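G., the chain you wanted modeled:
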Amino acid sequence: MKTGKSTKTVFNCQKCGYQSPKWLGRCPECNSWNSFVEEDYSTPAAITKERTALYRDEPVLLQDVEVEEASRIKTEIEELDRVLGGGIVPGSVVLIGGDPGVGKSTVSLQVSNELTRQGHTVLYVSGEESVSQTKLRAKRLGTAKEGNLYIVNQTDLSLIVEHIRKLKPQVVVIDSIQVMFDPAISSSPGSVSQVRECSGMLTQLAKTTGIAIFIIGHVTREGTIAGPRVLEHIVDTVLYFEGDRFSIYRILRAVKNRFGSTNEIGVFEMGSSGLEQVMNPSQIFLSERPKDVSGSIVTSALEGSRPLLVEIQALVSKSGFGYARRRAQGFDYNRMSLLVAVLEKRIGLHLEAEDIFVNVAGGIKVEDPAADLAVAASVASAFREQLTLADTVVLGEVGLSGEVRSISQASLRINEAEKLGFKNCILPKVNCRNLNYKKDKIELIPVSALKEALDIILNEAQTYGTK
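Predicted structure as C-alpha cells:
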C-alpha cells in the first residue's frame, strides 16, 4: 500500500466496495471471487474539505423544523407514476437500472420531454453521447420539441454541479453514473470509489436544493447494477427494467422506494417512437394463448394493487438421460420443486423420471403464492396430457399437505378475470365464503384440497363445457 500526503493505493471490491490494503482472491464481505482492483484512493479529508463548505448545515431542534407538504411532479406517464408512488418527489434521487438496450435512456428522454411540456426545467446530462447524437435520438422518439430541456455532454461532476446551480432545474438526468468522475478522486471513471462518491455528491445536492435527480446505471452479466451495492443504499428509489431486449415488452419494477410501495410495476411496449404504455397488460399476456393444448392454465398474479392475468405453461416429457431435469422461467425454481414433490406424494403422480419445464408466458416474473395451484395443475395436465377447464382462472396457494390455502385480494383478481371474459374461477373455499357474485357473471368453484381442484380442472372438464 502506497501512501502520500492525501492519496494511497488500496484494493477495492468491484461488487460491494470492500477495501483491503492487499489483493484478496475472495471478498470477505460479499464472497465474490477475483473482484479486487487496485485503485488510487484519496483520503476522506481531502475529498470532503471543499464539500463541507458547500453543504454546511447547523443542527436544529426537531420541534422547530417547519415541514411543507411538497406536491409530487406528475410525469404524465401513468405507468411510471404508479411505480414511483404517484409521481416524482422533489429532492429525491431515482436510480434506473437494466440491461443494455432495454430502454433506460429512452424512457429518461421521454420523461424529460413530458416534464418540459408542463413548464418544468430539465437538465439532461449525457456522458456517453454528444449533444448532436442526443438530438438525433430525440427526433427519432418524437421528443425534440421546444421547451426548457437543456442538454449537455459532460462527465466532470464538478462542472455538472456548476451547471445545475446555474440553471436551477426541477429535474436532472445523469446518463450514466459509470462515466462520471470527480476530479478530487484519482481513480478511473466507473470504479467503486468514483461511483460511490459521485452518487453521494449528487444525493447531497438533491437534498440541499430540492432538485429531483434521475441516475442511470448499467447492469452487469450477473444482473446487478455495475459498481458497489452501496449505490442502492444511497439513493431513494431503485427501478429495474425487466424483459428481454429482443422482446417488445418491458416491465419496470421498483425494488426500493422510500416514498411509495415496492410492489407496483409498469408495463411498456417498445415501438419505433419509444416506450408506449400498456394500459391492459392482462389482455396482452393472454393474446397468444393457444387453445386445446394441455399444460396451459391462467392465473392472476397481484403486483401491488394491480392484478395481472398470466398464462402458466408446463411441459412434461420422459427423461432420456437417467436424471430428470427441472427448469422454471418466470417462476421460483425451489417453489416449483416443492409443488412437484406434493404432486408425487399427495396425488400419486410418478414424476421422478420426467423432465419438467414451467414457463410464465410474456416474460413476467411471478412471486405471488396464489399461482401455486395453477402451476401444480399445469404440470398435472401436461403429465396426463389432458385438456384443462375452458375459460377458467385458477387461484390458490398449495401447502405441503396438499391443502389449498386462502389468498389475498381475491375480489380484485376475480374482477380482472371477469373483465376479460372468463366464465369460471377456481379459488380456495375460505375466500369464497365472503364473496357475493352472481352466477351470470362468473362461476365461483371453491376447493379445499389439491386433489379436489385437479378433479375439477382435468377430470370434470366435460361437465363445464370443455370439448
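Confidence is low (pLDDT under 50) at residues 1-5, 462-467.

Shout if anything looks off.
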